[in-house]
Amino acid sequence: MKKTDSLDDRVNDTKTRDTVVNMLNERGVTLNDIAELTFDLQKKYIEELTMDVCMDHVERVVMKREVQNAILTGLELDKMAEEGTMREPLKTMLQNDYPLYGIDEVLALAIVNVYGSIGFTNFGYVDKLKPGVIRRIDDEGKNSDRCNTFLDDIVGAIAAAAASSIAHRYA
Length: 171
Ligand code: MG
What we know:
Elements: H1 3-26, H2 31-42, H3 51-61, H4 65-83, H5 90-95, H6 103-112, H7 117-129, H8 132-143, H9 151-170
Bound molecules: magnesium ion.
């Protein structure tokens, strides 16, 4: 890769990083919330793990282009479903978080995939137990006009990817 290309990429990614972090914040999720999930996932394996380390790895994850693209796509679809600016039958499927839809999990795998197979295990764990902020997102999607169909999976996947990034570092 040419030097100028990589510099352009970095500048663009930083801009997109801010955009996706703002989008998550608008949906009520901070990077700190995600780092807490990552901490829970990894604390049993790494005794000296701190929240600062988790935050650092969450930051690395949201700098990746594939991750940014997944966040942009998923959160936009949630918003469109919520505002009703999307056609049927997708609108009703997303508004009701239809269990057989499944593309929310598939999109989240694009995030998990960046760090290989440990990511899948961690993602499955978060998806099943719905710890911390995931539970809140899930309840909010069920009990209000909010559509969080993609949000829960995206947040779980970022936490799982950061946990995998930490696992690789400490392996
Ligand atoms: Mg979902």
